[in-house]
Known about the structure:
heterotetramer, A: mainly beta, Alpha-Beta Plaits, two-stranded antiparallel ribbon, two-stranded antiparallel sheet, 2 helices, 9% helix, C: alpha/beta, Rossmann fold, five-stranded mixed beta sheet, 13 helices
Amino acid sequence: MKRKPALPGPTDSWREITPGGTIRGGASAVFFKTGDWRTWRPVWNQEACRQCLLCFPVCPDSSIPLAEGKRTDFNFNHCKGCGICAEICPVHAISMIKER
Amino acid sequence: MNVNFKTLMEREERFSGGHRMCAGCGAPVAVRAIMRAVDPEDRAVVGCATGCLEVSSFTYPYSAWTDSFIHSAFENAAATISGVEAAYESLRRQGKVSGARKFITFGGDGGSYDIGLQSLSGAMERGHDMLYVCYDNGAYMNTGIQRSSGTPRYADTTTSPAGKVIPGKKQNRKDLTQIMAAHNIPYAAQTTLTANFKDLHEKAHRALGMKGAAFINVLSPCPRGWRYEAKNLMQICKLAVDTCIWPMYEVIEGDWILSYEPKNKLPVEDYLRSQGRFKHLFTSGNEGLVESIQKQVDRDWDLLLKRCKY
Amino acid sequence: MNRKSCLSGNEAVAYAMKQINPDVVPAFPITPSTEIPMKFSSYVADGLVDTEFVAVESEHSAMSACIGSQAAGARTMSATSANGLALMWEMLYIASSFRLPIILCCVNRALSGPININNDHGDSMGARDAGWIQIYSENNQEAYDNLIQAVRIGEHSEVQLPVMVCQDGFITSHAVENIELLDDMTVKDFVGTYRPVNSLLGNESIAMGPYESADFYIEHKRQQAEAIINAVQVVAEIGTLYAELTGRPYGLIEKVSMDDADYALVVIGSTAGTSRAAIRILRAEGIKVGMIKIRVYRPFPEAEVAAALEGVTAAAVLDKAEGLSGTGGPLYADVCTTLHRHRNNLFTRNFVYGLGGRDVKVSDIIYVFREIARESADPGNMQRMIPYRYLGVRENTHPGEQT
Amino acid sequence: MNSTIEIRWHGRGGQGTKTASLLLADVAFHTGKYVQGFPEYGPERMGAPITAYNRISDEPITIHSNIDKPDIVVIVDETLIGAVPVRAGLKGRETILINSSRDVETLRRSLNGFSGELFIVDGRRISEETIGANFPNIPMLTAVAKACGLMTDSEFVEFMKESLGRKFSGKTQIIEGNLQAVIQTLEELRS
């Protein structure tokens, strides 16, 4: 995970925020949490998973990280619990449960 | 060039999580697939028209784009990125900038079919070395589901409501892909999200590999606006393709090539029944509307088959 | 008979449009005005109006279609905000030069960049030189009343100019408040039927939009200027007629507790409501404060503002738009011109506030009054030129309050 | 000015929080009050946190600004506690209404020992039992209307029957379900 750069914040004075609203350093959104939007939560059954990776590209929130070509558990910072991955998994290795 | 599916998935993500699209939105799935077609060694500069994708993917100070990104207004995404491409041509010629760049700009159907059509047509006609991708979600979703010329006929939107007198959008959908093909640009294509993303990937990769202007239209379902359960995204895309409501094809240097013909073509009703925006087509008083849609889709499909010299 | 109800600003304006029943409404969606064409298109879909609703592909085409339609003798209305108004900018000038009384609901929103969907007056202030009459509303009742009056004002034979009826995006457009609605017949009679001076569809053929050499252009601008000057009188007349009908008086400005005021606020839009509460609190403390709410900004009601500021010690002018002249906001410029021409050298301070939806509280208004009272008490300040200031901007970082 | 009740709602996009605040304004309007109902807007996405406000008064309300010292805070989605400053501006004498199935002690702890009045409404369960979907806005509206003392229980049920009838004319199943949600909420609040 990239080290969190010093991003301008909602309490910074007008002198501190970046001129013109221009942001440097690429995808800073990784540091913004959207996980709390969930009302449902995906559960990944590692044993049942055949690592076919079909779930990887259907995730709208890039929340299925890969390591050495294998999928790992969801990135719950960003997953919004939409359930698309669970719906398409050919071996039903992903199930949806109600968020706590 | 067919890099296999798994190796492709391992490419560094160019569209991160942390954006604010609705849960289950089709657009970011399309965007990730397009950006995945940029070869790892190439750097991209991405443009975007105002819309759901833009306001959700760059809310200060959070950008979801790993590559450089610029949004300026709603009607000028293609014009804006054509300026970036022109700068690259000039600075590269003068030796002030080096290394390959891929210029890609995204727009919704409103931003591409309607308010942005003039600047899109201009950029395509001028032949800038760029790829314009329309994520077609069938209405102005960012402002709350208003009809666009990309909205299917009879669809219920908030400015073409299914009323007592008028059953939703009166007009037929504008076929932007064919309009772009008519610009005689090197590449124009229509696709959507399929299980292995092969069709979308190959088209994006082919477009990015070609010199000059390219256009790809990607059907990107919107659960909120189309009123279906978000988890059914891929099934909705499949229905759109298997009913031939959203044919997949490409036009390479003027050659029309069909990408997919469904083994058994499904009736449009299967697609229409899957979404709340067409619910009123199945109520009394609106008989015959589904039939007229079927007729229109079949006519368009036959025309396409002819064009693709079937 | 009038009907009490509870509506948002957008709903109130869409309802007024239904009662006015215009012939053509070209519209394009943009937050926060979208609810107006949304609501109105449901009236169209249910056959409740005779209007031809044109879902154009951009705001530039919306105003172009309005011009074509009004020029063809049809009463024409539209609605937009911020960048939408900016995209109409070229056509706004043409509409007013053609002397076409198009009625536009402008739901005020910040102009890009950066892009922001919340309220300020940068959009309509940006179009203040386009030759349109600009009427601002403090709340949904005024938005409703102003729109009905705007039709009579624009179409008046001495005026024949387009009218922009503004209300604050989200703050009033999306806020539900009590409102009193007129019945359909009363509105229908008040606006009457539109009798165009010229029409492309009339028996006699006409031609509009000539090329004009130097021989005529400046004369036409002088003519257009006469119309906007006439509007000052016409707006007041129509306001009186409307007051007789509804019991709600409308003038060019509204004075609140100004009779004996030492310190005055000059303000436009929904913040005038928040200021009423501040005035009540300070008056209770014995501080003589008052407010001048500018209802009609174009044409600028110079005489009324000059008279209202007579005898005031200090005035704070609140601009919800940054004119980026480097010397203060657009309203401040107009107020200072008025004071200069009327040789009134009272102490003035300009505050730019509320940009991009920054919330403005009663306490902020109280702060403004105390600030001008304090600063005008120091004679040194009377001569010194005090630069314009921002209200409610973070001057320094508060690391502690990271939420 | 103290005759004005100021209310702040916390919910998520798509949960009906904005609709509930507008319905509350409608209820208060029909009891002859002056009202305001308004959402705090940003690009609202399904699931993203949103805030909505109400002012209810005996005199005309002219203030046009957000509410930062509410008399009542309504938390329609309890997962917002900790994610959004739901207790901002509270001094401990006010009322918090929360849609939750947890008990008072746990909730007070999660609200950092809030000492004011705490009403709990299991909006999810009530709405699922009555309209078959987790749409807590009618139970929450009922609880807030009661907390504001706008009408007696029976007057409120009557009012909702008429207003639901207007809104969902002909869809008796929806009207009955929502009416049942109102009645059940009132019963549970009494106990």
